[in-house]
Amino acid sequence: MKKRKLSFWEIWNMSFGFLGIQFGFALQGGFMSRIFQTLGAGKDDIPLLWIAAPLTGLIVQPIIGYMSDRTWSLKWGRRRPYFLVGAILSSIALFFVPYSPTLWIAAGFLWVLDASINISMEPFRALVADKLDESQRTYGFVMQTLIIGIGTWIASNLPWLVSELGVSDSADLGVVPNSVKVAFAIGAFVFLVSILYTVFTTTEYPPEDMEEFEREKAQKNSFISDIVNNIGNMPKTMKKLGVIQFFSWFAFFTMWSMANPALTEHVFNTPAPIETNYNMDIAVDKEAFDVANTAFQKSSNAVGSAMGVYGLSSMAFALLLVLYTSKKNINRKYVHMFSLILGGLGFLLMNIVESSQLKYCFILIGISWGSILSMPYAMLSSSVNPKKMGMFMGIFNMFIVIPQIIAAVGGINFVSGLLGEQAINAMTVAGISLIIAGFSNFLITNRAAISYQEAV
Known about the structure:
CATH topology: Growth Hormone, Chain: A
Number of strands: 0
CATH superfamily: MFS general substrate transporter like domains
Membrane topology: Multi-pass membrane protein
Number of domains: 1
Mean pLDDT: 83
Pfam family, one: MFS_1
Largest sheet: none
Distance between the termini: 16 Å
Subcellular location: Membrane
Number of helices: 20
Shape: globular
Structural class: mainly alpha
CATH architecture: Up-down Bundle
Keywords: Membrane, Transmembrane, Transmembrane helix, Transport
Oligomer: single chain
Low-confidence stretches: none
Protein name: MFS transporter
Order of helices and strands: HHHHHHHHHHHHHHHHHHHH
């Protein structure tokens, strides 16, 4: 079916829900390690505590992709029911996670939060391929990236902003500050409202052949065997993109899990206070702990704000791509390659910059982030069967979550440990990984994936 070209505002409306999704991811990515450290986690424990995020993605996304491919409602469409369910569950989890009284409860909330976000996110990727003609695919994925950048920047600055408005950064031992609690509550509200906006402003195309769709849906095939069969028969281009994704997401998982301990320690010189170093029954020790803890919480706000810059620069990068791809086609392969290399340099520079210069590192990282959120999906959407777009988008998520699982169960600690004990070495590992991802783009040779223009 030849699809009509959509206007800017139609594409904006169908992408707007990603604002809320990114509020959830930015708050999770920027501040879960801070919550874990506040509740007593050591920096070497943090990657493993993060394993919930990739594991839930590995399980949830292929299943949701499979289910949404086989869903159709005259009122709600194919993908929108999953947006809504995920948004409700995510908002509840976002609100309550900073109230966790213990480390294991916080880790449990991360499982719930990430699974819920994934329920909403995967169908959004498939919606672009469902709604847009081939010639607008890059434009659509870049529009999502623009909105993601806005969400990342605002959400990453929320704890700093509410702190500036007078909400306290101080808290007792093992208690998350009120500034973080208020920020997560705002994020929960934005998540739900933005998803509702897309649900009620966007329509979906019905299946091209409704009779065939109903026959396929009525088949009794196990979705597990269906997913396994499609994994075994994935296109070559998808496998090659998987190599790029592996090193890209290893780098970004390292940033999300380790940036707070690495940068508060190396750049701000305010590491998280260790409880065993203080006797809270002695007034002098309690006062010293309060001073050290408040300094750590404030530098964590600053790290979060600096990380927000990568959302801002990814937004600017995406805006340039939106303006360009609305009229012309691009070479996705080379755009992605150079973007990833720039991000890798941003990570490496963290070893030598001062706190006031940290934002420049994240500007470079933001360029790579903007490309990661658009170019691989644009290349993939030109390489797979449109009838199985949701499933393949879910399967493609394996190349996102497997490197994160490897990083969480010891990959980060092992590789960064080869460079020394300092937490900043994790950022060096992230930089090297992202540069490898950049050069891996030479693997992509499919002309349709590289540029739509070359395929027609």
